[in-house]
Automatic annotation (TrEMBL):
Protein family: Belongs to the aldehyde dehydrogenase family.
Domain annotation Aldehyde dehydrogenase: ranges: 28-485
UniProt keyword annotation of NADP present: yes
Keyword set, alphabetical order: Cytoplasm, NADP, Oxidoreductase
Record carries keyword Protein biosynthesis: no
Protein name: NADP-dependent glyceraldehyde-3-phosphate dehydrogenase
Active site positions, chain numbering: 266
EC number assigned by the record: 1.2.1.9
Main location, first listed in the record: cytoplasm
Database matches in PROSITE patterns: ALDEHYDE_DEHYDR_CYS (PS00070), ALDEHYDE_DEHYDR_GLU (PS00687)
Length: 498
């Protein structure tokens, strides 16, 4: 169970509050305060975590800086070896970590276990990929550029940035944490993790797996607390050399305040699904259900708007409605398809979008139903551009359908969005798929499949308000390093072999 057995050190039995991790140990904050974590299903306090102070942030940064200097000298193979060990411990302890995900973010039990296993695989893959990427450099000669003789040799290598600040979101608090932690560590950086409040306890358990793997003290820290007290203090801290953030609008504010620090940000999407007349509608319907309603639509890569040619819209909507009627609704412990959204404020926001669509004439394919944070799946047909749901990201099990008369109309709607994370095109004509995909202003286009972040080694990036930089194992490692050039100046030009 969570907080027991090998995880007993992370929990303070006297206060009932989970500890934060710094300098290789589990600690209680000097603030004497805690932050409650509300179970989305029961809407009652499930866990409590430390409300850390700014002074504790300063100490964490000092430890991280000192530990990084030593870690950078650790052989690359050794760094990879330790990541493999952490991955194995993480996968061995998938049950208690998954239990936290179920209770903190109402993730269905089977999906919670999958997230932890996937995270372990990601850590191992990063260790292997890091050895390949970081083990190579470049050798340049000066005579390849006009006007120069062969009198300079340039050795180009990749070196760590320093201290990486990682801020993952609530919906994948383990997987999107390790997608930042593992590249940072293999590249020779130290890592400070600020987990989301909902998902913090799962993240603390995950960090303990790295602790048990034997990473040097101070190299990894996990600091919890209120964003209003330590959020800006963390992101604007002079000790931070890189910020990797996944989340919402907060990322835009961070990017404006961060200064001269490399940023890796994924800030959400309004992923459009364009359906042509020749599409396999059974395939489309299955992917709309998977893409629009898995984890109750609380995914940045969820299908957020369906743009379907009017001639096939009736048939597609009918096929989707049949599948919606078969979705199970209820608590995550029972592995229901639709579980409560993360918070009451999220449920209220979703309801606001639904009521706006109702007032403006959308067709409700199902009755709108809500019980606390639990919202039943809802397909909205005949949605018009003047409705909020056409543009705003609900992050819930509500999906709008907009009927279009031309492909250009669909592309225009996709590109008019302030988001540009992913999109998808369904057609049997590969030429049309490529042409439409090229015209869509998104970081990734899926052809005949719903949007998805994985596999985790694929590049993952957004345009416009969807983010800065690119993720994926290779891209993250490269982003968390900088180029170092060493130029050897020869006394005379050198030409080898004759």
């Amino acid at each position: 169970m969570a907080g027991t057995g090998i995880f007993a050190d992370i929990y303070d039995e006297h206060t009932g509050v989970y500890k934060y991790y710094s300098d290789g140990a589990w600690n209680v904050s000097s603030s004497g305060k805690s932050v409650p974590i509300i179970n989305p299903t029961t809407r009652k306090t499930q866990y409590k975590v430390q409300a850390c102070t700014q002074e504790e942030v300063n100490k964490v940064m000092e430890s991280a800086k000192a530990a990084q200097k030593l870690w950078a000298k650790t052989p690359l193979w050794k760094r990879a070896e330790m990541l493999h060990k952490a991955a194995a411990i993480l996968k061995e302890n998938k049950a208690p970590i998954a239990e936290c995900l179920v209770k903190e973010i109402a993730k269905p039990a089977k999906d919670a276990v999958t997230e932890v296993v996937r995270s372990g695989d990601l850590v191992s893959y990063t260790g292997e990929e890091g050895v390949r990427i970081l083990g190579e450099g470049k050798f340049l000669t000066s005579d390849s550029f006009p006007g120069n003789e062969r009198s300079k040799y340039c050795l180009v290598s990749k070196v760590p940035l320093g201290v990486v600040l990682a801020i993952p979101p609530f919906n994948y608090p383990v997987n999107l944490a390790v997608s930042k932690i593992a590249p940072a560590l293999i590249a020779g950086n130290s890592l400070v993790l600020k987990p989301p409040t909902q998902g913090a306890v799962a993240a603390l358990h995950m960090v303990h797996c790295f602790h048990l793997a034997g990473f040097p003290k101070g190299l990894i820290s996990c600091i919890t607390g209120k964003g209003s007290e330590i959020g800006d203090f963390l992101t604007m801290h002079p000790g931070v050399n890189c910020i990797s953030f996944t989340g919402g609008d907060t990322g835009i504010a961070i990017s404006k305040k961060a200064g001269m620090v490399p940023l890796q940000m994924e800030l959400g999407g309004k992923d459009a699904c364009i359906v042509l007349e020749d599409a396999d509608l059974d395939l489309v319907a299955a992917n709309i259900i998977k893409g629009g309603f898995s984890y109750s639509g609380q995914r940045c890569t969820a299908v957020k708007v369906v743009l379907v040619m009017d001639s096939v819209a009736d048939t597609l909507v009918e096929k989707v409605n049949v599948k919606v009627s078969k979705l199970t609704v209820g608590p995550p412990e029972e592995n229901c398809d639709i579980t409560p959204v993360v918070s009451e404020s999220s449920a209220n926001f979703i309801e606001g979008l639904v009521m706006d669509a109702k007032q403006k004439g959308a067709t409700f394919c199902q009755e709108y139903k809500r019980d606390g944070n639990l919202i039943w799946p809802l397909l909205l047909d005949n949605v018009k551009p003047e409705m909020r749901i056409a543009w705003e990201e609900p992050f819930g099990p509500v999906l709008p359908v907009i009927r279009i008369n031309t492909v250009e109309q669909g592309i225009h709607h996709c590109n008019a969005s302030n988001f540009g994370l992913q999109g998808c095109v369904f057609t049997r004509d590969i030429n049309k798929a490529i042409l439409i995909g090229d015209a869509m202003e998104t970081g990734t286009v899926q052809i005949n499949s719903a949007p998805a972040r994985g596999p985790d080694h694929f590049p993952f990036q957004g345009l416009k308000d969807s983010g800065i930089g690119s993720q994926g194992v290779t891209n993250s490692i490269l982003m968390m390093t900088k180029i170092k050039s060493t130029v050897i100046n020869l006394p005379t030009p050198s030409y080898t072999m004759g």
